[in-house]
Amino acid sequence: MRRLLATAAVVALGLSACESVEPEAAAPPASTPQLDKGDKNRAKPDDRKPKQERRRPSQAPPPKEQRQVVRYLVTDVVDGDTVTVAKSGGTTIRIIGIDTPETVHPYESVECGGPRASAAAAKMLTGQRVQVVYDPSQGRLDTYDRTLAYLTVPGLGDFGLAMVRRGLAAEYTYDTAYAKQTQYVQAESRARSQRKGVWGLCGGVDTPLATPEPPSNPQPKPGTCASGYSPCVPAYPPDLDCDDIDGPVSVTGDDPHGFDADGDGTGCDS
């Protein structure tokens, strides 16, 4: 028995001397276990994303604060392009960008379309509370110390533009271009082409109002003398004053012109 064991040991040693030791191959990385559909839907409690809370109506962000609009009462409509508002005890506003025919100019006569433009402005503005809008491209005051601004009227919008569109005012650039110039020029062009307001009635602004003046010392035509006067006096009508004739005159009958105020038979003697 001992001899058999010794023989086996010798054989084992011989076999081991003939073998080379191969390095042990690295174990493949452990693969991530695949989750079935049921496993995918079952996330760990710690891995779940917190749900976003729905915003309640009471938690809605507050609305942005709106800029407060200040309006002033129109206290007087001077003419079609100038008004007075109840600001700082009374502020006269010269509307930027428009020009209407004159009605109250101290050195100019009433112009064609002026009364109509003034009446339309009064209708649009009287009793209204308007927003006074300044234009940084223009000065704050004109040469007459009037405030230069646009007027915004509730329910109407830009007052100056409304006047131009109706043909009641012309576009007017005083010195430098103003913010609404293009809009006003286009509005005037349309009003002109449609012959609205002063464009059809007067041919434009700055047209003197046609008011025929009676000629001084009118000379009567033959056969047109009024009876009861000597020398000849033009027949009535029209009514004449003493400044219209070369007086005095004798009044021998009816006195339709009223020359003989004191009834002494002589008219225009004083």
Account of the protein in words:
This protein has helices at residues 2-17, 37-40, 114-125, 159-165, 181-193, 198-201, and strands at 72-79, 82-85, 91-95, 98-99, 129-133, 147-153, 157-158, 170-171, 229-230, 249-251, 266-267. By secondary structure, the chain is of the alpha+beta class. The protein has two domains: 72-201, Beta Barrel (OB fold (Dihydrolipoamide Acetyltransferase, E2P)), CATH 2.40.50.90; 212-270, no CATH class. The strands form three sheets. It has a five-stranded mixed beta barrel. Helix 4 packs parallel to helix 5 (181-193).
Give short descriptive properties of this protein.
OB fold (Dihydrolipoamide Acetyltransferase, E2P); 2 domains; elongated; three-stranded antiparallel beta sheet; five-stranded mixed beta barrel; alpha+beta; 21% helix; 270 residues; 11 strands
* The CATH architecture of the largest domain: Beta Barrel
Q: What's the mean pLDDT score?
A: 78
Q: What is the H-and-E element order?
A: HHEEEEHEEEHEHHEEE
The CATH topology of the largest domain, please?
Answer: OB fold (Dihydrolipoamide Acetyltransferase, E2P)
User: What is the number of helices?
Assistant: 6
Q: Structurally, how many domains make up the residues?
A: 2
User: Strand order of the main beta sheet, please?
Assistant: 1-2-3-6-5
Sheet with most strands? 5 strands, mixed, barrel
Instruction: Write down the CATH class of the largest domain.
Output: Mainly Beta
Strand segment count: 11
Shape descriptor: elongated
Binned, the helix content reads: 10-25%
**Percentage of residues in DSSP E strands:** 15-25%
Radius of gyration: 51 Å
Low-confidence stretches: 4-25, 212-216
End-to-end Cα distance, whole Å, is 186 Å
What is the multimeric organization of the chains shown? single chain
Helical/strand content category: alpha+beta
